[in-house]
Fold:
Amino acid sequence: MNDQHAHHDRATKNQRRAEAREKARQLRAEQQKKERRNTLLLQGGVALAAVAIIAIIALVIINSVRPEGPGPRNMASDGIRIGEGFAAVATPSLPAGDDPVVSEANPAGVVDIQIVVDYLCPICGEFEATNGPFIETLIESGAATVEYRPIAILTSRSAGTEYSLRAANAAACVADRTPSAFFAFNAALFAEQPEEGTPGLDDARLIELAVESGSSRGAVEECIQDRTFASWVRAATDRALSGPLAIRDVAVDRIEGTPTIFVNGQRFEYRYPFEQEDFAQFVLQAAGDEFSTNPTPSPTPTPSP
Structure:
């Protein structure tokens, strides 16, 4: 090999090394750019995720602290009073934050029955099944009024559907929009009462029950679907649990559970399982001489299973 050829080979090798180094440098530069781009994308994604999480948290907070709306009409005491002809006693809507108002006294000789209920409470359902026909007879004859106070203490016991709250809201919707249908709707809710731990009736079925009870679909549908009185239900539930309750002639610090029943201001300390005769006797005892001046409705026998 002559000197000229060796020099050419060395130049060619050096050139190839230089080209390889340049290509390696370019590849490193491209890789660094790609890494910086991925880092920026990752940071951007994390930022967007953080914004989304913050938005979700803010929405939850806003919904949880949503100001209490006004209560339904005809429930200024936190309950709706049903009298002769199954007509509701009219009262104005309770402004948000106001204390409930004690219902006016009944005329002499008319028994005042008040019942705090949760529509998912199985004992409430059994009380209604046992004593509902007797209460209906008392109202029909003009011998008594009944004031139903729906609350929602079992909201968390319906597989996440908040049935207790939704049912109480539906009852408030009926009381507000079509109060003449309330007595029948209350009975219908107990007639189709779901078991605890199940999803319960959906809103569509609650609307159907209201319509079957005498409400017009247009009057209650949106109210039930939108849970118009949900904040009022929560507030009424808090008032029942913390007290005092707005009940005439008795100081009630708080309720311990549902059903809680008063007759002329006296608490009915029931035995379980229920016997219709027990409640009928308590009504007569609580009413006293005043009630005996009126014809006493005969208790309706409980249908045999």
In short: The first helix runs from residue 3 to 64.
